User: Which sequence fits this backbone?
């Protein structure tokens, strides 16, 4: 009875230990604050941004930073700060949707592959070999050349590129626990394959997947920015950070702020996700803890 | 060791074959083809003229026949000709490969020159100001997109101080000094994120090694800290660094595409981008094959190197 009681109470205790670890990790907390700030800016963009991000305002063109325009204005007189705030929407939504898709498809295939092994595992792993043989950005560029630019194609391209690493991590996590005593015990008790996978194996793959998701979000932000810099992202005039940097390059000498502002936004967002990922790794996987 | 190598090579070849098929199919599924791009919509070509041109380029054949022809030629080292310029892809690649190679090798060199000393310093001065500054550099370097760094460097070193050119390329054998001046900013922009990743791994790996028993023994023998760190610990600490660099080669090659575009360097990345934009199939196939091939090869080499320097590694 005592054992059952201990088991029942182990979940909240684990969660308490997680939060205690999380809240005492400086990188996790700093990362979370940065990520929350960027998400808040994106969600409440109409409230935060002082100006319309797409409206041309020729009288105000190429103005330097001032109280009115804290990051100056671009060639068309648009307020850089407002465009950076609205740009967060594109960057975050492309990255978040792409990583979720990669997690579901790549992670799902990887978990199943580690669980079933045999020919299915062989097939999935060789497919990931092929996807991983491309430098990520080259594969995304090639995919976008085939799919054409735009929000959903950009998201899909990044999702395809990142499904391979998710498949690898999920497979490794499943392989680690599939032979453990608690999995064998549940099988001995007559649990079906889907039940064993869903109730016993996947919860144990949660920690490495969560860390992977956070770090992949950072990569996705950088990929989205690179692709939109190359003109393969969402079409103008809706602001996207990479494309703003590319546009700003044309007026680099006259108005460097038009490129510097969106670059700083990318940097802070990626920094946020990286710190959060590092912090989560410290808390969830003490073996990998950085010294 | 031999079976491990054979298996590793076989998997690499299999992956490359997958890349070849995937790229071949993907490039042909792109809407619009080189003929429509070459002729342009303003020329109002008749359907017969278009069909003739497609026959001339051999892109009217069924896709598996096109693949068979292309793959057969590939096995003899022939990557075909550019549909636009009629030039041999192999000779174009031979002109462009050295540019990309120089860029990535310089970027790698810059990364190692910054990262190893900085990582060692951070580990030795753990918890002190130098350590925090190194960590700050690493975090910033990993978060800043390389194309943005490139633009900041152009702003600072080309437009502001007029020290270095903002673009263009001079052949290495024509004028080595000018060549280097043109390569500094691209290589720096490309190398900084690798430097950041390598700094972190050098630091954490060295810290780990410094806690091992054999290092304690070396210290207890009365060896100076300098000898302990540089003669005993660093060599072992650099093993994971090799792996990280190998893993980052893909990022480096991918980054080279965008950096070559920004600085107008005639490398393979820019060649691939031009090919994609103009639907020049053979160019895209050739360029992607070389980049993916180089990436796969480096990964095999890293695995082999790792197996050689760390005898504890298991070959399964």
Assistant:
């Amino acid at each position: 009875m005592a054992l059952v009681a201990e088991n029942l109470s182990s979940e909240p205790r684990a969660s308490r230990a997680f939060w205690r670890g999380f809240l005492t990790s400086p990188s996790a907390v700093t990362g979370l604050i940065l990520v929350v700030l960027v998400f808040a800016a994106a969600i409440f963009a109409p409230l935060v941004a002082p100006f319309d991000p797409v409206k041309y305002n020729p009288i105000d063109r190429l103005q330097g930073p001032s109280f009115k325009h804290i990051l100056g204005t671009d060639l068309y007189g648009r307020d850089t700060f407002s465009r950076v705030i609205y740009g967060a929407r594109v960057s975050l939504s492309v990255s978040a949707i792409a990583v979720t898709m990669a997690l579901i498809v790549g992670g799902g295939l990887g978990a199943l592959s580690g669980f079933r092994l045999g020919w299915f595992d062989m097939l999935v792993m060789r497919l990931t070999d092929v996807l991983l043989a491309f430098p990520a950005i080259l594969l995304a560029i090639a995919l976008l050349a085939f799919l054409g630019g735009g929000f959903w194609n950009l998201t899909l391209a990044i999702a395809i590129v990142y499904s391979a690493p998710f498949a690898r991590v999920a497979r490794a996590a499943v392989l680690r626990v599939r032979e453990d005593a608690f999995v064998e015990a549940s099988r001995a008790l007559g649990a079906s394959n889907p039940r064993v996978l869903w109730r016993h194996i996947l919860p144990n793959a949660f920690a490495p997947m969560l860390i992977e998701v956070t770090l992949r979000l950072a990569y996705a932000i950088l990929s989205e920015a690179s692709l939109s810099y190359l003109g393969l992202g969402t079409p103008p005039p809706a602001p996207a950070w990479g494309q703003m940097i590319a546009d700003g390059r044309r007026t680099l000498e006259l108005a460097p702020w038009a490129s510097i502002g969106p670059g700083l936004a990318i940097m802070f967002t990626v920094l946020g996700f990286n710190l959060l990922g590092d912090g989560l790794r410290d808390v969830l996987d003490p073996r990998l803890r950085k010294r | 060791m031999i079976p491990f190598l054979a298996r590793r090579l076989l998997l690499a070849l299999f992956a490359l074959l997958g890349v070849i098929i995937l790229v071949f199919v993907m490039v042909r599924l792109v809407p619009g083809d080189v003929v429509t791009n070459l002729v342009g919509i303003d020329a109002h070509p008749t359907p017969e003229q278009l069909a003739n041109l497609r026959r001339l380029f051999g892109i009217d054949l069924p896709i598996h026949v096109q693949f068979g022809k292309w793959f057969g030629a590939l096995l003899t080292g022939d990557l075909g000709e550019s549909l636009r310029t009629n030039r041999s892809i192999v000779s174009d690649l031979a002109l462009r490969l050295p540019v990309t190679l120089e860029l990535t090798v310089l970027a790698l060199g810059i990364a190692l020159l910054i990262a190893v000393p900085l990582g060692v310093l951070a580990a030795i001065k753990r918890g002190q100001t130098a350590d925090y500054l190194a960590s700050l550099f690493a975090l910033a370097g990993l978060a800043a997109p390389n194309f943005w760094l490139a633009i900041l460097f152009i702003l600072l070193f080309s437009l502001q101080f007029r020290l270095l050119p903002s673009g263009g390329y001079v052949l290495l054998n024509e004028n080595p000094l000018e060549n280097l001046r043109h390569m500094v900013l691209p290589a720096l922009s490309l190398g900084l994120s690798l430097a950041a990743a390598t700094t972190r791994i050098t630091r954490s790996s060295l810290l780990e090694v410094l806690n091992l028993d054999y290092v304690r023994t070396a210290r207890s023998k009365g060896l100076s800290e300098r000898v302990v760190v540089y003669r005993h610990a660093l060599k072992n600490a650099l093993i994971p660094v090799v792996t990280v660099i190998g893993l980052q080669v893909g990022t480096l090659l991918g980054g080279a595409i965008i950096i070559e575009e920004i600085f107008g360097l005639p490398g393979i990345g820019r060649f691939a981008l031009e090919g994609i934009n103009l639907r020049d199939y053979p160019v895209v196939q050739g360029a992607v094959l070389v980049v993916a091939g180089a990436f796969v090869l480096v990964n095999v080499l890293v695995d082999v190197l790792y197996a050689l320097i760390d005898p504890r590694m298991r070959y399964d």
